[in-house]
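(Fold this chain)
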Amino acid sequence: MSIDALRDQIPDYAKDIRLNLGSLFTETILNDQQKMGCFLASALASGNAVVIRAIAAETDDKLSEEATTAAKAAAAVMAMNNVYYRSLHLMSEKTYGTLPAKLRMNVLGNPGVDKADFELWSIAVSAINGCGMCLDSHEKVVRKVGLSTEQVQAAIRIGAVVHAAAAVLDGEAALG
């Protein structure tokens, strides 16, 4: 399945999502690896099999094996970290935030691709998962290495639109 086939499955009431998917795939503010990695990591974070398959098919020939693995790793480690750090942020008792996490997250130090790209993908997934602490942390890293606010925004927009496409398709499937 391609991105066009995915877009065709989105009903007319969600036309804006369909149009945004198309425009984000052609956006040039991110390089191809950054953009396609954001799409793949976001699709995996969405949990919707149709979205995952369509975006994986679209990114298959656009990402190296290393970049594909790193995008998957970003989705995986952020699934864990976003829950953990969002919980620390939401809890009234701040002592938990002073304790060591004791969670393995070695991939953050050696993702197998340019660190800025991995961090950008982590931002997209953290936006989907709603973790403000992770968004702040990863945004600081990418800004420090020279990515612009517009590039960070593009990653968040990709995450938002991919998540919305998944939500629409999940809703349609539930309605039968």
